[in-house]
Amino acid sequence: MQRLAPALRKDNVPLDLISLIKTILAATKEISFRVSQAHLSGLMGSTLDENIQGEVQKKLDVVANELFKDILLESGFVKAISSEEEDSSVAGDENGKYIVSFDPLDGSSNIDINSLIGTIFSIHQAPADMDASDPNMFKQAGNKQVCAGYVLYGPSTMLVMTTGSGTHFYVLDRTHGGYLQVERNVQVPQDTQEFAINMSNQRFWQQPMQNYINDLLAGDTGPRGKNFNMRWIAAMVGDIHRVLCRGGLFTYPADNKNPEKPYKLRLMYEANPMSFLLEQAGGLAMTSQGRIMDIEPTDIHQRVEVIMGSKNEVQACLAYYQ
Ligand code: F6P
Ligand code: MN
């Protein structure tokens, strides 16, 4: 098993990017510890605040955000950061070469039930000609990411990351405090009999998604001619991790539950990094209209429809929209 830095050097990752990744991982180790101690240190439950997206912040959301933000901004490697828990981007070092978008703790509803949560991050090059305080730096498509990953705080603390040379798995080895590579070039099976969707929204979906899911539910007596199983962890990190491990289709489709908010997941720190990881593992990551990573962002908190996972199943789903 290879340690992280030599594994990254083997993939020709620039040294300054390796340093930034190590900084990010230092933050995740601290978050991993805080998560494991949360109940003992009074960090369960919510704050009295909402974030800019109108979501109630959990105490651990805030702690994870502060930790991640401070460590990154002090590192000197980043020109700015943007986070699910910050209204706007936050300036770092004018000479920093990178910008980082992150969801400090994805799957917040799992915090209080001691279930799967994780940190998602996405790294772009910082435009040299823009001021560190200019949030427009973040308006870069997902196809320009130089690194994306997530850390799962599960039975083991696990890093899943790509720098554009495949998607690799690492596990935090607490005996020496570092991440070790446990799997290289993970491949998502092209076919699957498993899907992940919040079924309680069914009546709010557009007709093509209703038709597609109805056909999956019809199983071997329906047009698909095979039975499907459903899984829903309610944390995108957990659901995407399962898809990376054994295939599947994950979707958070458009819905008209709240006409002002047709999509749930955020492009910059949820959809884009997961798309990069899945595509690097041979999967597909789409909206019903096209490739997620080709979307030119207009806002750091913009939301997007997500249909991703095993290639053939994503294509089968998209066929319902044609
Ligand atoms: O960050 C948003 C998120 O928590 C995702 O991790 C997850 O996939 C989704 O929301 C769960 O949403 P729902 O409330 O529909 O289960
Ligand atoms: Mn999230």
UniProtKB/TrEMBL annotation:
The keyword Hydrolase applies. Keywords: Carbohydrate metabolism, Cytoplasm, Hydrolase, Magnesium, Metal-binding. Pathway: Carbohydrate biosynthesis. It is found in: Cytoplasm. It is an enzyme of class 3 (hydrolase). Residues 15-182 form the Fructose-1-6-bisphosphatase class I N-terminal domain. Binds 2 magnesium ions per subunit. InterPro entries: FBPase_C_dom, FBPase_class-1, FBPase_N, FBPtase. Mg(2+) 1 binds at E84, D103, L105. It catalyses: beta-D-fructose 1,6-bisphosphate + H2O = beta-D-fructose 6-phosphate + phosphate. It comes from the Bacteria. One of its GO terms (molecular function) is fructose 1,6-bisphosphate 1-phosphatase activity. Its cofactor is Mg(2+). One of its GO terms (cellular component) is cytosol. Residues 188-321 form the Fructose-1-6-bisphosphatase class 1 C-terminal domain. Pfam families: FBPase (PF00316), FBPase_C (PF18913). Its EC number is 3.1.3.11. Mg(2+) 2 binds at D103, D106, E270. Belongs to the FBPase class 1 family. Homotetramer. This is Fructose-1,6-bisphosphatase class 1. It comes from Colwellia chukchiensis.
